[in-house]
Design goal:
heterodimer; A: 121 residues; alpha+beta; four-stranded mixed β-sheet; elongated; B: 236 residues; five-stranded mixed β-sheet; two-stranded antiparallel sheet
């Protein structure tokens, strides 16, 4: 085997090992990043909102997404319809990406792609 | 000379091996070739990946002498480098339908060794398109998309490969999606998780120059994730 092929196959096998390790971690703390990405994948829009406004949404019955509590510091993440979020004065639109802005936001209001907000109540 | 010109010239020059039954053009050039008129507007690596079924390796080897515009790389004999700047490199990789999708092995050979990627076992012959008189055998879209989604990659290359997956998703029809879902369900749980994980990464990617904007495909990615998850039991 040429050194180049040998190196490529060793790199590939090491990546597969890391992936298997990641897979075994999926229900543990490290799996939070997959769970957070999975949640955000369902969001067509994301907004940073104040804690007060987030708590109002929760009081209205919108479900707190458990993923947010798994972060430190914890984040309050709530899905709500676009029309409801449009009425929140504190809302600040964020790109739906794992950006510093999104990661640093204390509370997130997300608009789902599917109109299934009722299922999250 | 445009990139498209070089791509098509490379395909013409590689025709002796592309004519071997079972050999496929694979990799990131596929969405370029699937664009209307093979417009090749996506920015990808300057190489043409050629998938060689391991049982066709002896036949392909016999055709290598006909590749007069290329020569094997001194460093890596599975790469054939062009003798002129108007062509792209040829990168030969092995495909073994009986291989585990997570494994890889080297098909040892003095003249044309092949790194056989297990994920390529998901590929099979799809459309044979004709581009300016040259026949180009391509893999079925569903298999190629799934291969992109389970192949573990890192860094900028990894993100660009996922953008290629996004470009493939853009051309997929309902039948391709159904085929993708069926192939996905045949994978073992770890690989199914890898596919879903890569879809979540794709969903959150920003735009890159020379690549289709993945943000425009986010709704499709979300819908695909839901379909893949349907029937999965105990998801994290």
């Amino acid at each position: 085997m040429t050194p180049a092929l040998d190196q490529r196959i060793r790199q590939l096998r090491s990546r597969v090992l890391v992936r298997s390790w990641d897979y075994r971690q999926r229900r543990h703390a490290r799996g939070i990043w997959f769970r957070l990405r999975r949640l955000l994948a369902d969001a067509s829009q994301a907004y940073a909102i104040t804690r007060h406004d987030a708590e109002v949404l929760v009081a209205e019955g919108y479900r707190v997404e458990p993923v947010g509590r798994e972060l430190e510091p914890p984040k309050l993440i709530v899905f709500a319809p676009a029309a409801r979020i449009a009425g929140i004065a504190s809302r600040r639109p964020l790109a739906v990406q794992l950006s510093a802005d999104l990661i640093l936001a204390d509370c997130l209001a997300l608009v789902p792609f599917q109109d299934d907000t009722e299922a999250r109540l | 000379m445009t990139f498209r010109d070089r791509l098509l010239a490379t395909i013409r020059a590689a025709q002796p091996v592309l004519e071997v039954q079972g050999v496929l053009v694979i990799g990131s050039e596929v969405p370029n070739l699937l664009e209307p008129g093979a417009a090749a507007t996506l920015v990808v690596s300057q190489l043409l990946d050629i998938g060689v079924p391991v049982d066709r390796h002896p036949t392909v080897k016999r055709r290598l002498d006909e590749l007069r515009e290329f020569e094997p790389s001194a460093d890596e004999p599975s790469v054939w480098v062009p003798r002129s700047p108007g062509l792209l490199e040829l990168n030969f990789v092995g495909m073994d339908p009986h291989q585990d999708p997570a494994e890889a092995y080297v098909l040892e050979d003095a003249r044309l060794p092949l790194l056989v990627f297990g994920a390529l076992s998901l590929l099979s012959l799809g459309a044979v398109i004709e581009v300016e008189g040259t026949r180009v055998p391509l893999p079925r879209l569903a298999g190629l998309l799934l291969e992109k989604l389970i192949t573990d990659r890192t860094g900028e290359k990894g993100e660009r490969d996922l953008l290629v997956a996004s470009a493939l998703l853009a051309t997929a029809g309902r039948a391709d999606s159904e085929e993708l879902e069926q192939a996905y369900r045949r994978l073992r749980p770890e690989l199914r998780h890898a596919a879903r994980s890569n879809l979540t990464i794709l969903s959150l990617l920003g735009p890159r120059n020379g690549m289709p904007d993945p943000r425009l495909r986010r709704a499709e990615v979300a819908a695909l994730l839901r379909r893949l998850e349907a029937g999965e039991g105990d998801l994290p």
